[in-house]
Amino acid sequence: MNAPAIATEDVVKTFGEVEAVRGVSLEVPQGTVFGLLGPNGAGKTTIVRMLTTILKPTSGRATVLGVDCAKDPERVRHIIGLAGQYAAVDENLTGYENLRMVGRLTHLPKATIKPRADELLERFNLAHAASRPVRTYSGGMRRRLDLAAALVHKPTVLFLDEPTTGLDPRSRNDLWQVIEDLVKDGTTVLLTTQYLEEADRLAEMLAVIDNGEVIARGAPTELKTSFGATVVEIGLSNARNAARARKLLEQFGHAELLVDGTTVEVKLEEGPKGVTALVRALDTAKLVPDRLIVREPTLDDVFLSLTGHAAEVRATDDEHEEGERGAA
Asked: Which of 31, 145, 149, 319 is 20 to 30 A from 126 in CA distance terms?
């Protein structure tokens, strides 16, 4: 049986008195996308930095393809690629020069560097800008170049730490397509994100991280089924009918009157199968909706259900590390 591409066993990381990661255990099969979902400050980036040998765990064990990240970091670096939250390319070099530099730093045979750079520039739709300084690139182009640089040495396992931060919707979709193509070719990807749509589209399995702990794990559809609720919005002709409908529909789940005064939102306890019974109840009461919208649970709903708060921005992992360095 193949070893998991990525594994952690009760990994803990502290920065001074701050426990950024609290006993996290993960296992990522080869050839899959695994998502770490949570707000800034949840511990996602710290986990990635331990797996990519930038940080050592305070306790516990982290491995990539069976290689211990703390005991044999050099070997781990040969088999992984990393693209962080911000493009790490040199803006004074051209796109081609950046990839050539990475090829030399990763000790690729000299004869293979140019063909590999040309291949990646073509694959990431950057061939037309290969000879331009990176400072002239758009944000989306820089992120694609950064990802290309992480792939120069053909890593088996790729870590993407919030790769679409700051990108416009079109650039984000372009990068998602690139990631999907990489996985089709056999690359294992560990993706951290606070974009719930991104996790839903890309990840086959998810771990929801909050305050340094895994609070749920499973496929996106499983999490939505287990922790989300089907939401029905019913628009009525006037506030009086809306009030009647809210009282009537409390039997199906949590019902509340929205701020417009004529719309009732019901979170169905029985999920989609409760919609039919809800409509029948309205019909029996002679309450005819002007509109009826059914919304399936999203990962936003899952996160809110699990944590009691949305995926808002909090103190970042970087701030914990800066605090540790300042105290040193």
From this structure: 31
In this prediction the pTM is 0.78
**Could you say which of 3.40.250.10, 3.40.50.300, 3.30.70.260, 3.20.10.10 is the CATH number of the domain covering 229-296?**
3.30.70.260
**Rounded distance, CA 228 to CA 136, Å?**
44
Distance CA 60, CA 69 (A): 11
Query: What does the buried/exposed string (b/e) look like for 205-222 if buried means 16 or more CB atoms within 10 Å of the residue's CB?
Result: bbbbbbbbbbebbbebee
- Cβ–Cβ < 8 Å for 249, 285: no
Cα(177)–Cα(193) distance, integer angstroms: 16
> pLDDT tens, 133-146?
999 999 889 989 99
pLDDT per position as a tens digit, 275-284: 999 999 999 9
Q: What is the DSSP string of 211-269?
A: TTEEEEEE-HHHHHHHH--EEEEEE-SSHHHHHHHHHHHGGGEEEEE-TTSSEEEEEET
